[in-house]
């Protein structure tokens, strides 16, 4: 290049640099930082961050996050969301300017995640296109619609006597090891082919118990329409606290898209204990049983998010099955009574029935559904009312019969019929029964066709009847499932098949 051209190039470059320097406007992004003063089990206190808001996310060293819970004048109490052993006094923290949120979308179906959305199933991270805050206001009353569609659990004693509707909140409570989780898992398994998405939220559970549930869901083909969120017992209490709220936001995304969703909280006893632990560590004043004063509010604002949306908002529904563990059958304890008052009914599992082998151990006398009866299929209505009355009479008379007094013929018939009702309501774990099979059995039971069958032959007779129910005409089956009234012709068609298949099991009177 000629010398003149080289000089011209240098001059142009210098002029361009000078112009760029003169037109440059520095952009500052302010960072608000604070300092850790103390770290204890699951919480940290920090100073600084004068502009932090309540429940704002705070970033700690090591990609750890926390939620600002106590926003005092001179310090901030933060709930930590993960492993915190690497934190030390004096470490710097930073505001994020956002609240805790979670990824939502169809990408989560079939996955096992923690409350922060991180995968726990040894698969790739979940890439979702949308995020929602875990704390959201419940839908307004005007945005809700009545509960009119049943949530079939596949469990005979529930579908017939204590029905649940889509959009309802039905509490499951009982002592430990009485089958609470089994009822919830059975309900999830029964949603296969029902166009219902399911969320199973394990809160503070043992890893072995959660692994068993996931294995059952995979075996039953339920993971295709289920999201499993897990907070294990050895996780930080902050993760156990946010788990049900994060799971509910995932469920609400599907509900707002017009889908029907079922969510199981297993269990809210552990959630309440985690919140109590955090509150005591943050020096909040304790109340009854050392729980903080707002323990009712944290559960009510969670369960109020379960509802059935109006048609204008898509008509989706969110059905909640919260689980609570009682101690020594005390359903009048603090947390159980709180949840009973919030929910629309409860399923009480009796240890006495469990020990007697009456499974599922649902105590019909102490269980109630305040909404589901309006959503129950019409075919059940025609049968279940008399069934519940007959069962109640049997339980009352059974107590007197144990005294050894002589019974008249009418009393013996009631007890004999009641024993068949109890036998028919027994059901093995992870074996949901279809609507048509249930109605066939309940009709035969109400007609007294099981009364002449020995108790040791009841299970075999049941299975034979289930097999034979496949002979019921397709139009009759469709009427059962669609919720149309049970007419005399349909009833007789079912009973005709039942009489034929049950006759070989009946003994002569």
Description:
The strands form 3 sheets. Strands 8-12-11-13-14-10-15-16 form an 8-stranded mixed beta sheet, sandwiched between helices. It has a 6-stranded antiparallel β-barrel with strand order 1-2-5-4-3-6. It has 3 domains: 66 residues, Elongation Factor Tu (Ef-tu), domain 3 (Beta Barrel); 274 residues, P-loop containing nucleotide triphosphate hydrolases (Rossmann fold); 127 residues, Lysin, CATH 1.20.150. The N and C termini lie far apart (120 Å). By secondary structure, it is an alpha/beta fold. The protein is elongated. Helix 5 crosses helix 6, helix 7 packs parallel to helix 8 and helix 10 crosses helix 11. The mean pLDDT is 91. Helix 4 links the parallel strand 11 and strand 12. It contains 15 helices and 16 strands.
What would the keywords be for this entry?
509 residues; Elongation Factor Tu (Ef-tu), domain 3; Lysin; 8-stranded mixed sheet; Rossmann fold; 15 helices; 6-stranded antiparallel barrel; alpha/beta; 16 strands
Summarize this entry quickly.
Helices cover 38% and strands 18% of the residues.
List the helices and strands and how they pair.
Blueprint: H1 3-23, E1 33-40, E2 43-48, E3 56-60, E4 64-71, E5 76-80, E6 92-99, E7 101-104, E8 112-113, E9 130-133, H2 156-161, E10 171-174, H3 180-189, E11 196-205, H4 207-219, E12 226-232, H5 237-256, E13 260-266, H6 268-281, H7 295-303, E14 317-325, H8 334-342, E15 345-349, H9 351-355, E16 368-369, H10 378-401, H11 409-425, H12 435-446, H13 458-468, H14 474-482, H15 488-502
Parallel strand pairs: 8-12, 10-14, 10-15, 11-12, 11-13, 13-14
Antiparallel strand pairs: 1-2, 1-6, 2-5, 3-4, 3-6, 4-5, 7-9, 15-16
